Amino acid sequence: MTRYAEHPEKRGVGHVAGGVLGGAAKGTFKLVAFMLNFFVPGLGTFFVGRIGTAIIQLVLLPVGVLLIPFGGIGILVLVTNWVWSLLTVVQAWRKPTVVYVRQDPPF
């Protein structure tokens, strides 16, 4: 007996229907995301599904490079962005994003 047979009215939204996609839950994704963020801050964040944060981290790269001649503030921006991107991936390991796939009942 499946879990849908117990509560047929709740099928779909909020229930696993066919599978759970957890991008940051598997070991391979963790390593790939960490390596991407190690070399290019923001790419690994995009890989784990945090799109808004990834865009901010990717925008901070050229901003940091442009600010290097102004008293080294650019280096501070780049290092801070790099550390932030690595911490973002580590946090994604602890709280994996779960996407529920909804399947309509067959007619």
Description of the structure:
Residues 10-25 have low confidence and may be disordered. The protein is mostly helical. It has a domain at 22-95. 56% of the residues lie in helices and 6% in strands. The relative contact order is 0.20. A two-stranded antiparallel sheet has the order 1-2.
In short:
The chain is built from five helices and two strands.
Main sheet characteristics: 2 strands, antiparallel
Oligomer state equals single chain
Strand content: 5-15%
Silhouette: elongated
Sequence-ordered SSE layout with sheet pairings:
Blueprint (H helix, E strand, L loop, with lengths): L2 H4 L13 E3 L4 H13 L3 H5 L3 H16 L6 H22 L3 E3 L7
Antiparallel strand pairs: 1-2
Overview features:
single chain, 107 residues, mainly alpha, two-stranded antiparallel sheet, 56% helix, elongated
